[in-house]
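Exercise 3.2. Students should predict the tertiary structure of the chain below and write it as structure tokens, then compare their answer with the key that follows.

Predict this chain's 3D structure.
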Amino acid sequence: MAELRHVMGLLTMDGDAGPDPAADTGLAPQPGLDQLDVLVDRVRATGVPVELTVTGTPAPLAAGPGLAVYRVVQEALTNVVKHAAGARVNVFVGHTPQAVHVEVSNTGGTAATPAGPGGGRGLLGLRERLAVYGGTLEAGPGPTGGFRVRAVLPVREDRPAEGVS
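Answer key:
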């Protein structure tokens, strides 16, 4: 996770604005689905061509599940930056009444840094994070090359009614 934070820190640096003390101390609000466009824009600013497509009407998600979806996209984009220089990326987020579907696929590229031992812990961590909310994660080679990460997170309808705890 420290390596992921470091890479994303590099992607989110704004040279003239200086450091964000809230972000440095962990006091900034956790991102969610509403921040995906900002994340994609930051990755685009590094020169990676990313296309974001969002379909359907988003159901309200609690902070935890919303953060889990954000982290799927963040990890997949970070992996492209690190391991697939020159790749084009498609990010798809589809909302249905039952679930949020996420797919991040890339065309493949050349490794920017060699994969070291212990690689894949980010994807394993995401799989575990999604499982907490009843979600699933698949990751592997895409059907036409490159790499694809797919996640499905059910939209929970078993929330207590207002005023009931």
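Discussion points: The mean pLDDT is 81. The longest strand covers residues 99-106.
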